[in-house]
Structure prediction request, 541 residues.
Amino acid sequence: MAETNIIETFDYVVAGAGSAGCVLANRLSADPGNRVLLLEGGGKDDWIWFHIPVGYLFAIGNPRADWMFRTAEEAGLNGRSLAYPRGKTLGGSSAINAMIYMRGQAADYDHWRKLGLKGWGWDDVLPVFKRVEDHAEGGSEFHGTGGEWRVEHPRVKWDILDRIRDAAEAAGVPKIPDFNTGDNTGSSYFQVNQKGGRRWSAARGFLKPVLTRPNLKVETGVSVDRVEVTEGRVTAVVYRKDGATHRAGVRGEAVLSAGAVGSPLILERSGIGHGERLAAHGIDVVKHLPGVGENLQDHLQIRPIYKVNGIKTLNTEYWNLVSRAMMGVNYALFRKGPLTMAPSQVGAFVKSSPQYETANLEFHFQPLSLDDWGHGLHRFGAFTASVCNLRPTSRGSIHLTGSLPEDKPDIRPNYLSTEADRQVAVDSLKWARRIVFQKPMEPYRPEEYKPGAHVASEDEMLVAAGDLGTTIFHPVGTAKMGTDDDAAAVLDDRLRVRGIDGLRVIDASVMPAITSGNTNSPTIMIADKGAEMMLGDARGR
Prediction:
């Protein structure tokens, strides 16, 4: 390895140019007096499939776009190991995700506030969601306009999805116009982060418009090794590029925004984490924080598949060569049609049982079916009724396996490890059947392909949940914020690493409890709020 070089000193060094990092780079560099360095492990987002919405089919599972992580074998999934996709480019996972704009529920953030986290209640975060938003319908009580985060309605509809909404209504799930008002109970079309039929990633919204700022430097293709701490304060960020090791001096603060997988690993390589674990890898302990890498939460999706007849699905259209050609023409001429599709177009939020105060299941209905993302569509008409437990009680972990950045992480989501989560999994399969076999679906003769009608008892359903369950790509919580009396808290409520001056974590890993829905837009909110805290604290120094 080449000799370490001190390249420059910056006011702020941001490690990770995913959803949070792009927001931070934008906000921190807005003052020309701040010199900002943004470090990204992936490359530039100059691949066509980062921008055509349906490109997630080609990006997930492709090492050009995906870090290709895998979990350990999971007991709750009957011994299976899962692919664990994370975006590997500017914009991070917002460049390969489902593009669904979802805030979660007001109760999620009020719960954070009740945990003692000041400034994180629904009334506190709603203004932040609104100020970063540019909603196609303009400003309103719940939506903002003029921000960087574009939100539009989908540009394609399917009759099969409308019939599913009718069936959900017959099952007692009301139709609602908007999932983002604080209570998302009901069914609706998802709103999406797109503009004019193209994906709107965090890089496109927040980073690219400010790349010409002379006080902002962006480095791609780097491996962030660690932060250096001198007398309790961060003084540099060490990273590798093109075979050389570099040190970027930190005058103000360093921020880890490498996501729920990457940020805890950087902390551990920096000597910040559980002392015994670090010592086992030959890493000197800088700060004993046992919560680093713990508290992993994710939404496990179970993917029942139903064959249908006499109605179009993407399966039937894809395998018709004329229809497939027309998809391309429709997109090229009008930016409409199936190529603008998010993986899921219609959602439904319900309670798995009356014991829950708010909806704890989220359905992602898809007018398609396949064995796994990255594999081809089935050659028969079908749809998928993916359903996930929004507030799992299972907790997992992400830790390093060695002291080098190239060492793969040890990812253990620990899915279905509690009795409560196992019961919700069973109830979610019952709910899928309850919706699908309502009268509005009868003309299309739905037939359960997976797990199959033969799966009848709760024990059989639990086994099926373990066979069908997979990540829905929402890992959070591995560097959670908490109060002084919470021994597992890595951060305080201003996102500062406990016991280390000049170091924050700002990304999905800060969540103490997962939000009730897709997690990308909450991460954008956290980043904007975190940048505001950083700039405010700097003014007070």
